[in-house]
Amino acid sequence: MKGEDLVLALAWHFLLMSLLAVGGVYAVMPEIHRQVIETRHWMTEQQFADLFAIAQAAPGPNMLFATLIGWHVAGFAGALVTSAALCGPTCLLTYGVAHVWQRFKDAPWRIAIQAGLVPVAVGLVAASAYLITRAADHSVMAVALTALTAGIAYGTRINPLWVLAAAAAIGFAGYV
Amino acid sequence: MSESAVQQPEAKQTPGVADLFFTFLAITMSGFGGVLPWARRALVDKKRWLNDEEFAEALALSQFLPGPNIVNLAIVVGQRYRGALGATAAALGLLVAPVAIMMVCGALYERYGGLPSLRNALAGLTAAAAGLLLAMVARLLQPLLHARRLPALLFAITAFVAVGLLRFPLYWVLLVLGPLSIAVAWWRLR
């Protein structure tokens, strides 16, 4: 694919993801994974996991891994278009709905929609976690690091940044 | 500084456009592994632009609509005080710096991502990042682990199997599971 075609393909894909991201962007991560790795062969599973981890270690919203995917596929334009495509549609939707939110926030149909979509979104985030863990854990040490980090993040209030930094240092030293 | 940055003494609780931009910039730059707790701290505790109830309501709207929740929240808060300009300023404040940082990281990764020492560090980093995501899943699952919520748990498991293990396209899974799950929720809420 030529450069412009790549950017267009990214724009289209992430526009769709924006509107399908019920329950946040981690819910569409498995679909992004399927598209960029299995369907379009833009990157390997390892690269996908790398980019996700880098985004986690950087400040900002967790949608930023999409920016990195955009950069990987089509450089500066790819990163810009991907970020805008993932935020744009829902920003406009939110802007439009905020006016009328008061009118329907307590409506039974709205509560039912949310009550119905939340469990599905939880399952989708779990699928993301499964795919990333599968790509990340190739050694006993990596599995141990994943389990330890999950335990610390779940059970304590330690800033996850320290855990990520420690894990990167352990990896750098050649233990993972 | 733009004119809008000039603060009226009596207008302490209605932020200007520049105020919105810089507050969301500060929020996003302190937000490692999730920006939401920082947004709450800044908007409710420090700036007092929103009280607890207003924040909860803005958050509920942001989570109800699709897309990155925190970006939606910036739109809601920005619009509340300064309309379209405020919403744009808040969203840009949230995104401009992290996106720029990501671009630098992306360029560095493309260039040095193959170096053995960096590969080692990334192996540790991805293992830990996976752990963070698993902890998030554990937290999300907790409210579903009651006998009363069994249908919800079954929908979560079905979505996981369909998308994570069987690798079905998300469109189909949402198209089938979404309406079914909403129907069950509707029926149980009545």
Task: Write a brief structural summary.
Helix content of chain A is 79%, strand content 0%. With 176 residues, chain A is mainly alpha-helical.
Please tag this protein with its features.
heterodimer, A: about 180 residues, mainly alpha, 8 helices, about 80% helix, B: about 190 residues, globular, disordered N terminus
SSE blueprint and pairings:
The complex is a heterodimer of chains A (176) and B (190).
Chain A: H1 3-20, H2 29-39, H3 45-57, H4 64-98, H5 101-104, H6 108-136, H7 140-155, H8 160-172
Chain B: H1 17-30, H2 36-46, H3 52-64, H4 69-112, H5 116-141, H6 150-165, H7 170-189
Helix pairs in contact in B: 1-2, 1-4, 3-4, 6-7
Write a structural description:
The complex is a heterodimer of chains A (about 180) and B (about 190). By secondary structure, chain A is mainly alpha-helical. Chain A has one domain (about 5-135). In chain A, about 80% of the residues lie in helices and about 0% in strands. Chain A starts with a helix and ends with a helix. Chain B has about 190 residues and is mainly α. Chain B is built from seven helices and no strands. The longest helix of chain B is centred in the middle third of the chain and has 44 residues, at about 70-110. Chain B is globular and about 45 Å long. Chain B starts with 16 loop residues before the first helix and ends with a helix. Chains A and B meet through α1, α2, α3, α4 and α6 of A and α1, α3, α4, α5 and α6 of B.
